[in-house]
Amino acid sequence: MDLYSSLMNSAVLQRNANNVSDHSFQGTCSKNGKVYLTVQNANGVVPGFEKAVIGNAEKGKVSGKISGLPVGGPYELTLSIGEKNAEKCVIKDVLVGDLWILAGQSNMADSGYMPSCSQPEANVHAFYMTNEWGIAKDPLHDVMHAVAPVHGGNPNNPYTVRLRGTGPGLPFGIDMYKATGVPQGLIACAHGGTSLAQWSPALKNKGGYSLYGAFYERMQNLGGRAAGLLWYQGCNDTGNPETVKKYEQTTRKLFAAFRRDCHNPDMPIVLGQLGSFVISEGDTNTSESWLKVRQAQYHIGQTLKNTACVPAIDLPLDDSIHLSNQGVTLMGRRMAEAMQYLRKDTAAAPQIMFKEATCLADKVTNNAIIKVKFGNVQGQLTAPGLACGFCVVDKNDNFISEAINVRLDGDCAYVQTRVSYLIFSSSFKIAYGGTLQPHANITDEAGRSLPCFAGKVRSRKTNISEILQDALISEAIYCDDSFEALQQPEALDKVKFMPAKFNQFYLPCPREAGELDKAHKVYCYKFRLRLQEDMELKMLFGADAAFVIHLDGKEFTRVCTTNPVILDEFKFPLQLSAGEHEFVCTFSSNSGCGWGICCRFMRMDGKVVPEFVPVEELA
């Protein structure tokens, strides 16, 4: 009798809601007849399992179901076909408990340096990539000897001593056993350097030649059901803007497929959030893409049912991207606590969450201090030495500046920034873990890290619009740039425009030839304002060189000024009707000394403020 991997020595059978087995098996045989099962443990034959009929064998095939075997073990299972001269199969060291899928890329696939910080536990087993069960020990993942072709291994490859081989799976399993007393089974499926596209459920029909297909085939042999999924992936998708943009959507579809194919629409999922990444100058990876993926992971954990996102941003590395053996141990324990909470363990706490951010004013500098409030904090927030990890990003998650200082108070962090209080909420977000290596070190008193996120700052109730960011700027137009000669170019439709780049609070001119270029030239800024109703306004404007503004094709105002650019320095009253209005500002370079402009609008007669038309809609 050959039962393949559906029932073998050291296997863990998934328990059901009644804390007993419900495990289907299949294989090949030489005899026909009923299949009998006798189960023994340390106390002898288990009641109800002495020659219990559990299946049937005919035409060389055997199948059945082991139902009702209580959680625990180890058990010795004796299967026999027929009564006389029975064909027998003895399976030893079988446990009934929980199965966990370990999937993703390198930080799940045991890339931390050896030795392992976790000692094997007799009640925590692993289904290795060789498709064999055994007591779990690092490394759990061994692609060199994997049976599934997608991993590029061969079970006949010679064995070598692994330099790397620690991951979060083993400490997760050990902590789950300690918390529940239920045997644990870890199914090693991860593969380093893999993308979401490589994990696509659409490749399931390729079987062992795809990552998802290999998982699916093995899962079916193991009974088709699992207690939950541990997922740790994302690095490979940060290098492509399209995969970054679709990361959350694609991950949600993948999780839905895992739940469908494990026959559990509410299967708990714990995903690891991207940790730190140390790169050399000139590397194509950017802080922006990593923050976007971290934010997508955090949002999945906050909004997808029965899912939790566990941060790793504060954990130590072995190299530029992989968690150390100590780091993966802490990560595994964090994932275990998150899983316990999802499974309604009252002793476990939910993950720390970002609740809100409020903009306060520094009384001395008038710069913004952002009060960031968190939920689910155990005790209070703490950090060894100087609290680090916060930064300011713009609306598109581009890095602006590090925090000047961070003060922790209970469940709040007060983040001192170099951005003006007046414009922060309309133009910027507060981020934790917003750079590749933010040296983040803030935890609660239970040792749990803040999550990485980019959060909007609560807007002050105001009658002032957001500051101008959506504008086009022309190439340099070489001409007399004196105040007396300043005028809008006649053939404006033939001038080449490009999106202006926002910097702190103003839109700088390109300065193509560098700061020392003293050639006489002007630049044209073009933007549109959208009004829901007729409005009485004041245009609040700043510039550090002479300018003339045209409104809907007619000259509106002209001013001679000099450095620096001052927010709201000039106030121009105007009455505008509902709809859109175009502004063109012709800006003198002042022989290379002018830097740029800033603009926003104040409503004088109502609560609804005007909005700038997005740059994508500008002609």
Task: Give the helices and strands, then pairings.
Blueprint (H helix, E strand, L loop, with lengths): L11 E3 L5 E9 L4 E9 L2 E2 L6 E7 L2 E10 L1 E10 L5 E18 L7 E2 L10 E4 L5 E3 L28 E3 L2 H12 L3 E5 L22 H11 L6 E5 L8 H5 L1 H15 L7 E4 L14 H17 L3 E4 L14 H18 L10 E9 L5 E9 L14 E5 L4 E4 L2 E5 L2 E9 L3 H4 E5 L20 E4 L15 E3 L2 E2 L18 E3 L7 E2 L12 E11 L3 E9 L3 E5 L2 E6 L10 E7 L2 E10 L7 E8 L7 E2 L7
Parallel strand pairs: 1-8, 8-13, 8-14, 10-13, 14-15, 15-16
Antiparallel strand pairs: 2-6, 3-4, 3-5, 3-7, 5-6, 7-8, 9-12, 10-11, 17-18, 18-22, 19-20, 19-23, 21-22, 23-24, 25-27, 25-29, 26-29, 28-35, 29-34, 29-36, 30-33, 30-35, 31-32, 31-34
Helix pairs in contact: 1-6
Structure description:
The structure is a single chain. The chain has seven helices and 36 strands. By secondary structure, it is mainly β. It has three domains: 97-342, Rossmann fold (3-Layer(aba) Sandwich), CATH 3.40.50.1110; 353-456, Sandwich (Immunoglobulin-like), CATH 2.60.40; 472-617, Galactose-binding domain-like (Jelly Rolls), CATH 2.60.120.260. Strands 1, 2, 3, 4, 5, 6, 7, 8, 10, 11, 13, 14, 15 and 16 form a 14-stranded mixed sheet that branches. Strand 7 and strand 8 (87-104) form a beta hairpin. It starts with 11 loop residues before the first strand and ends in a 7-residue tail after the last strand. The mean pLDDT is 94.
